[in-house]
Amino acid sequence: MIHRVQIKTASKPDGKRRYGFTLTTGATCSCYPEDTLDFFALVCLDLDNIYIVPAGEVSGIKTARVWPNVEGSSGRLEQYRELWGQF
Q1: 40 in Cβ contact with 5 (< 8 Å)
Q2: Cα–Cα 20 to 30 A to 24, which of 15, 41, 42, 60?
Q3: Residues 6 or more apart from 7 whose CB is under 8 A from it?
Q4: Which tens digits make up the pLDDT trace of 28-54?
Q5: How far, in Å, CA of 41 to CA of 12, rounded?
């Protein structure tokens, strides 16, 4: 099976130890149409952490944040950290 993946990267956390990702496309900064991709791969470059997030989980959302440096983080995307089994 072939999956369509959009890769988004963040090089370092902000002052609150979170990594932010823009989930928009093109000059119009619009959300990706649901039928154009299956997953977002959110990559924290300095930590080598990847979140494999189903596109439907963030449908209509323009930004996503993760907290890989926060022990016991309960962020809603934490369940997708290194979740390679979806492929």
Answers
A1: yes
A2: 15
A3: 40, 41, 43
A4: 899 999 899 999 999 999 998 999 999
A5: 16
